[in-house]
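Q: What structure does this chain adopt?
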Amino acid sequence: MALNSGRIYRNASSNRVSGNPFRFRYFAGFLTIAVSLFIAVSFLSTASSGPADLKFGFSDSSSGSESGSLRRTILALKSDPLKPRLDQIRKQAEDHRGLALAYASYARKLKLENSKLVRIFADLSQNYTNLVSKPIYRALFDSDSSSVDESVLRRYEKEVKERIKLTRQVIAEAKESFDNQLKIHKLKDTIFALNEQLTKSKKQGAFSSLIAAKSIPKSLHCLALRLMEERIAHPEKYNDEENPPKPEIEDPKLYHYAIFSDNVIAASVVVNSAVKNTKEPWKHVFHVVTDKMNLGAMQVMFKIRDYSGAHIEVKAVEDYKFLNSSYVPVLKQLESSKLQQFYFENKLENATKDTTNMKFRNPKYLSILNHLRFYLPEMYPKLHKILFLDDDIVVQRDLTGLWKIDMDGKVNGAVETCFGSFHRYAQYMNFSHPLIKARFSPKACAWAYGMNFFDLDAWRREKCTEEYHYWQNLNENRTLWKLGTLPPGLITYYSTTKPLDKSWHVLGLGYNPSISMDEINNAAVIHFNGNMKPWLDIAITQFRPLWTKYVDYENEYVQTCNFGR
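A:
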């Protein structure tokens, strides 16, 4: 009975189980999902615990990087939804801070209103930095913070918006200033560029003017060639070497003039104007000295015309044998390779570097013809007084009155040119040099070459030629003055110059068109000093007739070469 009942129970149980197969399968599936979720959660918890627990055979740096990336992902999933809003606000603040710094930098560049805007923009930028540094907001940017305090965020957002509003307002107000300053800046750049161009043009213009002034006009070149042709064709008519000199040439009782020139027409105008304005031409002796190349032309020019009985001597520099490099410092200096390079390698880019002293690069300033004026006592040993005349002057009055002036023992009679601070010794010499500073006054009044009356006896007594040699030798490297003959003349006759009345000698007709005609008409001698010589096309129009009226247009050679009036 019992056995039967147990069998009946097992059979019943078997029937229940086999009768519910779907219930068993549902239970097994649920159990599998639960186990999977448990494993996944366990894995994530392990991963978030730190990189030290996840090595898996990788290197430390690799596992650290992957763990950090995974951690950020998890934190992003866990972060407060206010975090993106905070990041956006912070980005806006940083952008406007950078904008304020950019405007501050630009304002600093433009130098706006004594840097007022620079300070304003710098303060705005600093305000953004100070805002983030406040303790109350520092927690917002703490990387370990998992949540954001909304009230603090709102307060932070409010302050950021206030600063952004202020920044935009300041930028809007400063925009006009920036625009104006930008225009001013561009205008300054334009003015600077134009000024550079103007300076360059002035230098090139000065150089071109110098070339025009020192070039030989075609008519003058033609005249020299025609006269030389005549000299070669008829040597017997013009050769005075075999004839003894006329006694009048060395007679100290007559009025003697010294003219040193290589310009045939200019020298003839000086002599012609002096002769026409003197009362007794036969008492006047003109000593014309030129170079060997122009000697023949000069001889013909003064031989074919009778100058109302005036006596004219024409010689070449080479006829004065004592004028050699062993005695004359200028000739010795011309042998220097540096000096030759300075003068004769006179290219445009080098010549225009110093516009003010460009003219002193002209080789004529070391020409012996230009320095003969320092050797008058030796050239004319029997004379007591002599009047030196440049070849760019015109005589308008009888000059014999100069021989009646009491020279008070002085050597040089000249017209002073200083007025105010102009034409003082400081403009002609280097007073930073100790020798110049010790011997001369920078405020001493300068005088003019062109018409100078020399007492040759006083010259010999004062040993002026020796004084000239001393200073010329010291200036071999051009450290005392910038070449030319006026600075050494000012030095040589520093305390031995007799000032003459200004009506004896009026200067500036070669560069100053504003000289009054009354002053010119009252002058005994007018001087075309400057680049605009009267025989050039660039001569000052209103002054040119003062010179051309003494040109001998009846001369057949002058006519042949088409000298204009």
